[in-house]
Amino acid sequence: MTEAEKRQLDEQGYIILPGFMDEYLLHELRVRVEQLFEEEGENAGHEFRQEPFARRLANLVDKGEIFEQVVSDARLLVYIDHVLNSSFKLSSLNARSTNPYAPEAQPLHVDMGVLPDETGACVFNSVWLLDDFTEDNGATRLIPGSHLWGRMPQDVLKDPKAPHPQEILVLAPAGSVAVYNAHVWHGGTANLTARHRRALHAFYVRRDLPQQQWQKQLLSAETKARLSPLTRYLLALDDAMNDQLCAEGSGRSGFMK
Description:
Strand content: 15-25%
Shape: globular
């Protein structure tokens, strides 16, 4: 990371990284995601949550070796390390595809509905753009600097779905990755176009929080057997504390019930 990137993450809470994926990776992710949407049909996303006006996939680490590359990409881990102070694990890897002409935006939220504590930030997200993000196709919106406010949007906003005067849109070409401190207020916008808007969300938490999706319980024996030591560590597969945390509190979302 450059010093400018560190300042941007500290002060604004996000960075957009154009060209993060090469053409091969982007193509393969698109193909596999569409295969899964076709195969899973109405059950797509059932391991976590399903959402009106969007297609979802969950538990993606178990659904193709290509997804293991995403969650353990060394270039990405540097940004997570900076925000979560060297103590983190994968919480979930999902896909979200906003439907054509989806009329409703997501409410502004913070991931897992948690605020920073005395230790600092505890949630970090990355959005892997499988399609261009444009002003009218459901791009993610962020409120720069809101990770420093110590407040939940639903506690101070009359309507968290309404436009916010300080919001910016993540506008970038397919192949980009947006990384952000997930205490930043954020949410998807309405898709006013005739095409799906697809992205992966690789979401990480500090190691003293439960995973959103309990990886040890979800992954097949075949997947576990082929994982590298680094990926096993990132998925907390051999972490007794994670097992206890997830048994008591897995499945938390910032806005979906």
